[in-house]
């Protein structure tokens, strides 16, 4: 029997409705909402069609199946956001014949159709009914949680069409399978679809039950994590996945590939077996796992090949660093010896000592680049715990290897270049002395079997190339300093800073700030002003910051004004950096009584100190001002004792020292000053004030004084001479025993200076006093 009619169409997404179903769904698309509202005033019949592509939001007639169901709307509920919830009862199958309307709603001519009568006798139908009922019963046995009244009534039904209809409604078929069922032409085709579905579900449930039974035989049901691991293991076994292993098996595979001494491999194998036998949830298991991973990641016998080309090393050092000729020469000598020895045997530990910003760390990085070595850096500044170097013992919670072992693991080879940065800033407290722990690391006779408390196996550090950096050797313990070869990285001269700024720093900062060299030009005179008036340092770190300031302001100016090029000259430098921060205290124009120019070494290079002395009537007291340290106070007292001892020679009456006070002052009183090199300067200033004889303004001096008037050597000579030259001093008095140090100072610094070597105060006074 056929019957045609025209009905509104409601497209469904991800859902297929079958005849006999009473269900609800939400409608939000405008055409569907209008169609529902329209049928509510009539017979309430709609035609439900399923979309082929459930993800498509737009209603497209070409995206719909041609077979659906005629349904009656039973209830309508208005929800927020213009959503309508519809309760329907599906009646008959129907087939789309022709679209009648697509706007404002969908309407189509449909044709009702019934299933074709299959050529089946009653016995065949009965067999199908029983088969389906038995399959449902078997499925419910494997999944008892799914039992419901619907399945219970199914067992009491005797007609094939009723069984098929109820089973299709309650089965969890995907909507595409339900659509195939809906389009089936007869009950035989419908039976095949449902029987295939039930058979597949029964097999899946059976396999799942078997897996669960196997797991239950091995483990306690309360151990959730263990259950998941075992299920995963059994699934892998069922799939025949031979490429997956347990963690212990994975460790064993890694151990086979590991290049390490036999004793190390035996130790690791023993730990893996212990890990395998321990429970997965035990505290020991996680600790052992971490320990094994550390041992497997250490480069026991894995080494990189060094580049022994000394010319290449020289080219790399010259390309990346300007000046520092003596440092480069010493490093090249060191590399040459390593090349001749084929990197075998102990290597000296190089310690680069110098002020901040002079390129100590970058030299180490350049050496690694020249040799083709892996580079690792360990910052020792502020390290106070010995365990940071030697590691923690495994018995402690949260134990881990020390920094040396971790650096080797990070490098991945046993012969990297290891930079120990800021060794002079090591601390110590109740947790131990890390500098004492470094004694073994930096001892070439002992570090072939360095013991890390965590690793517990000897680590060979003899092939590691250690380079150490420090700002000063004064805070490095003597035994540790004895293990290192000191290389002085001294201050840069004005000329060296100009070259470094022009050839290295400025191009780097221009690139970092998104500019090119055509967009920013800095004149040589402007560069000299930046160095002299805006930075006061031994290195070039602040100089680089000032150049970065100029680049930032230039970038802003280019974007705001549209300029193609920004030119920075000595006249416009204040526009970019503001007022000058420093002024050089140049030599006095006239000779003055009681004023001497001394020379000092600071952590940022050399400086000049103007020492002033006044004589006043009093009680024979000596006053020292200018925030002087203990050493400088002692030097002043020593100088005064020497002057009193030679008083008769200069016809100074004995009562002079009882009836007069001597006041020694060094300007910039807020700046702490200390050191053993101002003795002759203070003695000269005092004698000048006592004798009323002026001191030559073109003379500066440095040196310590003894009670007998001998002048003893001092340090930091290069920085002091450089400071004298910048201040416009013509003559510098230097202790005679420092003559050997002058030969190491470049002619660029010494040029234009008259260096006079003095052995005693008589020679000093002869050159300094008018």
Automatic annotation (TrEMBL):
Coiled coil: none annotated. SUPFAM superfamilies: P-loop containing nucleoside triphosphate hydrolases, PUA domain-like, Ribosomal protein S5 domain 2-like. GO terms for cellular component: cytoplasm. It is found in: Cytoplasm. The active site is at residues 677, 720. Its EC number is 3.4.21.53. Its main location: cytoplasm. One of its GO terms (biological process) is protein quality control for misfolded or incompletely synthesized proteins. ATP binds at residues 354-361. Residues 590-770 form the Lon proteolytic domain. Residues 7-202 form the Lon N-terminal domain. InterPro entries: AAA+_ATPase (IPR003593), ATPase_AAA_core (IPR003959), Lon_bac (IPR027543), Lon_bac/euk-typ (IPR004815), Lon_lid (IPR054594), Lon_proteolytic (IPR008269), Lon_Prtase (IPR027065), Lon_prtase_N (IPR003111). GO terms for molecular function: ATP binding; ATP hydrolysis activity; ATP-dependent peptidase activity; sequence-specific DNA binding; serine-type endopeptidase activity. It catalyses: Hydrolysis of proteins in presence of ATP. Induction: By heat shock. Keywords: ATP-binding, Cytoplasm, Hydrolase, Nucleotide-binding, Protease, Serine protease, Stress response. Homohexamer. Organized in a ring with a central cavity. Belongs to the peptidase S16 family. ATP-dependent serine protease that mediates the selective degradation of mutant and abnormal proteins as well as certain short-lived regulatory proteins. Required for cellular homeostasis and for survival from DNA damage and developmental changes induced by stress. Degrades polypeptides processively to yield small peptide fragments that are 5 to 10 amino acids long. Binds to DNA in a double-stranded, site-specific manner. This is Lon protease. The lineage of its organism: Bacteria, Bacillati, Bacillota, Clostridia, Lachnospirales.
């Amino acid at each position: 029997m056929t019957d045609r009619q025209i009905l509104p169409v409601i497209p469904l997404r991800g859902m297929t409705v079958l005849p006999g179903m009473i269900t609800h769904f939400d409608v939000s698309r405008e055409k569907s909402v209008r169609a529902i509202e329209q049928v509510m005033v009539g017979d309430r019949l709609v035609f439900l069609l399923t979309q082929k592509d459930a993800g498509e939001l737009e209603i497209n007639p070409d995206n719909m199946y041609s077979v659906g169901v005629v349904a009656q709307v039973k209830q309508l509920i208005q929800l927020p956001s213009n959503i309508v919830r519809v309760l329907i009862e599906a009646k008959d199958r129907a087939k789309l014949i022709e679209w009648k309307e697509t706007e404002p709603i969908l309407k189509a001519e449909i044709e009702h159709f019934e299933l074709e009568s299959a050529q089946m006798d009653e016995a065949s139908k009965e067999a199908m009914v029983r088969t389906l009922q038995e399959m449902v019963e078997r499925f419910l046995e494997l999944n008892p949680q799914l039992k419901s009244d619907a399945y219970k009534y199914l067992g009491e039904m005797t007609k094939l069409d009723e069984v098929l209809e109820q089973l299709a409604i309650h089965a969890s078929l995907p909507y595409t399978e339900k659509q195939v069922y809906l389009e089936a032409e007869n009950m035989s085709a419908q039976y095949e679809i449902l029987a295939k579905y039930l058979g597949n579900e029964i097999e899946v449930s059976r396999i799942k039950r078997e897996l669960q039974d196997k797991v239950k035989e091995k483990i306690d049901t309360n151990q959730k994590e263990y259950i998941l691991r075992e299920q995963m293991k059994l699934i892998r076994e069922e799939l025949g996945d031979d490429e997956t292993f347990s963690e212990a098996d994975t460790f064993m595979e890694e151990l086979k590939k590991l290049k390490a001494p036999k004793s190390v491999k035996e130790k690791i194998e023993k730990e893996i077996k212990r890990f395998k036998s321990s429970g997965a949830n035990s505290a020991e298991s996680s600790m052992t796992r971490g320990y094994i991973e550390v041992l497997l990641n250490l480069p026991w016998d894995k080494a990189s090949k060094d580049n022994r080309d000394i010319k290449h090393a020289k080219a790399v050092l010259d390309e990346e660093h300007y000046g520092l000729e003596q440092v480069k020469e010493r490093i090249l000598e060191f590399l040459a010896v390593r090349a001749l020895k084929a990197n075998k045997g102990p290597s000296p530990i190089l310690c680069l000592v110098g002020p901040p910003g002079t390129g100590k760390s970058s030299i180490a990085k350049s050496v690694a680049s020249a040799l083709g070595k892996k580079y690792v850096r360990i910052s020792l500044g502020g390290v106070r715990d010995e365990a940071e170097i030697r590691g923690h013992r495994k018995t402690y919670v949260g134990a881990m290897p020390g920094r040396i072992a971790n650096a080797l693991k990070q490098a991945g080879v046993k012969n990297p270049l290891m930079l120990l940065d800021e060794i002079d800033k090591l601390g110590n407290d109740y947790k131990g002395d890390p500098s004492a722990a470094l004694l073994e690391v930096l001892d070439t006779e002992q570090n072939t079997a360095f013991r890390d408390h965590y690793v517990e196996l000897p680590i060979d550090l003899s092939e590691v190339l250690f380079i150490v950096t420090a700002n000063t050797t004064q805070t490095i313990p003597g035994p540790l300093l004895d293990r290192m070869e000191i290389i002085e990285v001294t201050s840069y001269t004005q000329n060296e800073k100009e070259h470094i700024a022009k050839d290295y720093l400025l191009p780097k900062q221009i690139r970092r700030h998104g500019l090119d060299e055509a967009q920013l030009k800095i004149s040589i005179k402007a560069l000299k002003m930046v160095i002299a008036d805006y930075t006061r340092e031994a290195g070039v770190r602040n100089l680089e910051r000032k150049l970065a300031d100029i680049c930032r302001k230039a970038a802003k100016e280019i974007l705001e004004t549209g300029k193609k090029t920004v030119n920075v000259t000595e006249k416009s430098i204040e526009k970019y950096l503001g007022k000058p921060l420093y002024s050089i205290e140049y030599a006095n124009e006239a000779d003055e009584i009681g004023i001497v120019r001394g020379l000092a070494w600071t952590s940022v290079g050399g400086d000049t100190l103007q020492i002033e002395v006044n004589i006043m009537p009093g009680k024979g007291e000596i006053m020292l001002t200018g925030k002087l340290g203990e050493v400088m106070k002692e030097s002043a007292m020593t100088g005064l004792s020497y002057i009193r001892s030679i008083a008769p020679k200069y016809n100074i009456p004995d009562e002079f020292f009882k009836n007069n006070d001597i006041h020694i002052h060094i300007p910039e009183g807020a700046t702490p000053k200390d050191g053993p090199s101002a003795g002759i300067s203070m003695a000269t200033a005092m004698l000048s004030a006592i004798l009323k004889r002026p001191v030559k303004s073109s003379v500066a001096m440095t040196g310590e004084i003894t009670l007998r008037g001998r002048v003893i050597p001092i340090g930091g000579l290069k920085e002091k001479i450089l400071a004298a030259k910048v201040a416009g001093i013509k003559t510098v008095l230097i202790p005679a025993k420092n003559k050997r140090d002058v030969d190491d100072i470049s002619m660029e610094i010494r040029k234009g200076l008259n260096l006079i070597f003095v052995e005693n105060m008589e020679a000093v006074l002869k050159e300094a006093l008018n």
